[in-house]
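Ticket #4471: complex job returned nothing on first submit. Input attached below:
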Amino acid sequence: MNRTYAFSQRNVKELLRDPLNLAFGLGFPIVLLLLLTAIQANIPVALFELDYLTPGIAVFGLSFLSLFSATLISKDRMTSFLMRLFASPLGAQDFILGYTLPLIPMALGQTVLCYACAAALGMQMTLNVLLAVLVSLPAALLFIGIGLLCGSVFNDKQVGGICGALLTNLSAWLSGTWFDLDLVGGAFKKIAYMLPFAHAVDAGRAAVAGDYAKIMPHLWVVIGYAAAVLIVAVVVFRRKMHRDNV
Amino acid sequence: MKNAIEALKLTKRFGTKVAVRDLALTVAEGELFALLGVNGAGKTTTIKMLSGLSLPTSGDALLLGDSIVKEPQKVKANNGVSPQETAVARNLSVLENLELMARIYGANKADARANAQTMIERLSLESVTNSKAKTLSGGMQRRLSIGMALISEPKILFLDEPTLGLDVLARRELWGVVKKLKGKVTILLTTHYLEEVEALSDRAGVMNNGVLVAVGTVEELMEQTGAGTFEDAFVALATRQEAIA
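Support reply: We reran it on our side without changes. The output follows.
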């Protein structure tokens, strides 16, 4: 446990000492929240109301976790740091826990900060908001799993393209954060609901609204995706550990 | 003197290519053995197998009596590895990098701090103790990288091209570090710099196309080939046709 803890502490330091991580992980979602709230204040229709917008922004913010963790893992691979650690007594379990566990409190912190910002902008704080923070956990695990998987397979430049551009856009556009998916409808909506992002946002919105019965049907989809991605990521990482080219 | 490393017909294949073929090698405890060869000769693959990073296709090796195939975790606990590229945590300070490795090898927080401080003094890294690794010069990073391999007090140390890309002064400084370890730690070093072999090694082996074609002291290798310089001896051994067949 001492080894896992030491390794996870190192990962926390690496992540928090990168100013880009802080800028994108914390700053960008908050800027979006401020910007869209300012737009809402100047338009007559309810398009970006805080109760509706904040759960979406919270999930969007979590998508950056994939970028952070994948970049860290792929850089460790590319610089031979991981090779050094593979030659140490650290086992597969130490690596996987060390790379994933530190991101969970970071995800919670990010989500809490997002809702705190919404509170400062006028969102009413109730116990339902606390529930919404907890409901965001499976989405956090999903993005952490995607990060572990991409970091194990791709180099840091590929990670930038896949997690930095593709995944963040995919999770933004197909989550219904920026617009109501019913407005587009058709195949777009069907595809959106085949993926977990819209379900993660809907579960958060249901929690904020106190519409408890609607939470789990959406959350089960996210939990299913998170479990599947984490299992695949762990299998791929373990296989990489035993392959000749780290 | 006991053997620290004993390779027993160690073989590694990648598909149809044989990277290392039937390697038989013994390195005594406390000895500094240099493994030479041109690029692709099989040096790094040998180090990867001996350090537990890669499983052999066939054969085995005993490190202080422990099999790399059957007891890789035990082998890893006794080894220190400094990979070819500088392998440091870039956003961690020198002290934090050393503490991290000490704790990974089982030291508690207080011992890790004490061992890291000792290693900083031993490697003359005091001036950069709290500097982030990414801000260090190439020579300093390499010194830190070796310190990270030494912090666990390994019985066997693998140095894969430790002075690659360093300027003459940085290289000489690292030689000083390695010389201080001689006799205390068994070292297997790979390098392309023949003067490094002459300055540091007790014995050397030359690999050619995955085969260890000669082993001996620098003088013995020169004698074997009838060469006037060690470089000529190396060229003769590294280009021998029978190994390529």
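The radius of gyration of chain B is 18 Å. Closing as resolved unless it happens again.
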